[in-house]
Amino acid sequence: MTDPREALDQSGAETKIISPASGHVLGWKFTEWGDEFPIDVPLDQAGPQDYDALMLPGGVMNSDKLRKRQKSVDFAKSFFIDGKPVAARCHRPLTIIEAGEAKGRRMTSWPSLKTDLLNAGAGWLDKALVSDGNLVTSRKPDDIPAFNEGMIELLARARRKDERAHQIA
């Protein structure tokens, strides 16, 4: 979460940590607990309409826990419904599967999710970054530089599209 969030912040985005937990969340660093991060907005108070994009950070434990929380899945699904940018890495495509938004998409993920994505109707590619419309996905920590670049480019495309729409209206 930290490197992608920092890349977003450095590109001019304003990021918020949204979680169903209260107070703070713990990161995971390879084989042990990592840093603690304060929650900016509790999920119960977060409205998808208040955000321009969604970044789903990696990690197997949080991905598995969040896919079981319908409110988390519904929150993510709303970004797809509204055509907003979504960036997901590592195990977080599990949320996209749960939201019913993997079918027909080209995606990548941590290799162990390949069968899950194929069963959900996605086309799985073993690449550092896969871009498909309003979605970018990546596989693993080594891919974070490509993920950051793809995520920022996706946001820039969405911003340009939004500016054109405002100019036409």
Walk me through this protein's architecture.
It is a single chain. The chain has 169 residues and is an alpha/beta fold. The protein has a single domain (48-168), classed as Rossmann fold, CATH 3.40.50.880. The chain contains 6 helices and 10 strands; from the N terminus they run H-E-E-E-E-E-H-H-E-H-E-H-E-E-E-H. It has helices spanning 2-10, 60-67, 70-81, 93-98, 114-119, 144-168; strands at 18-19, 24-29, 32-38, 41-42, 54-56, 86-89, 106-107, 123-124, 129-132, 135-138. The strands form 4 sheets. Strands 5-6-10-9 form a 4-stranded mixed β-sheet, sandwiched between helices. A two-stranded parallel ribbon has the order 1-4. Strands 2-3 form a two-stranded antiparallel ribbon. Helix 1 (2-10) packs parallel to helix 6. It is globular and about 40 Å long. It starts with a helix and ends with a helix. The model has no long low-confidence stretch (mean pLDDT 90).
Topology:
Layout: H1 2-10, E1 18-19, E2 24-29, E3 32-38, E4 41-42, E5 54-56, H2 60-67, H3 70-81, E6 86-89, H4 93-98, E7 106-107, H5 114-119, E8 123-124, E9 129-132, E10 135-138, H6 144-168
Parallel strand pairs: 1-4, 5-6, 6-10, 7-8
Antiparallel strand pairs: 2-3, 9-10
What is the gist of this entry?
The protein is built from 6 helices and 10 strands; from the N terminus they run H-E-E-E-E-E-H-H-E-H-E-H-E-E-E-H. The chain is of the alpha/beta class and 169 residues long.
